[in-house]
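So, can you check?
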Amino acid sequence: MHERQRVPATTPWSAMVGYSRAVRVGGHVYVAGTGSLNDDGTVEHPRDAYAQARRACEVIVDALKQVGAGAEHVVRTRIYLRRPEDWIEVGSAHDEFFGEARPVTTMVTVTGFLHPAIMVEIEAEAEL
């Protein structure tokens, strides 16, 4: 049985919902859906999908580092968009962080997020 390493999520509701930002089990790392949120739950860069995607990727890479991984270890991402017309800007931000790794990815639109200012959320999985 592999030990679990957890990176805590810092939003006010993470303890209530019971989730971590990232979990490493053996050589597998799973990063939860990540938006452009501050620790107090406010949204950074409202109405700017590119900036939100960049911030989400920064948070993901930071979480990976905390469990001994990096962007180069990412093998899968899932991108959730509020508006399909933002796909190029969000894809650009994704490429800046994960372009060298070339993970498999899925990009889908959703009808909405829990907070109306969130434009994008990104999940990641890494393999060490």
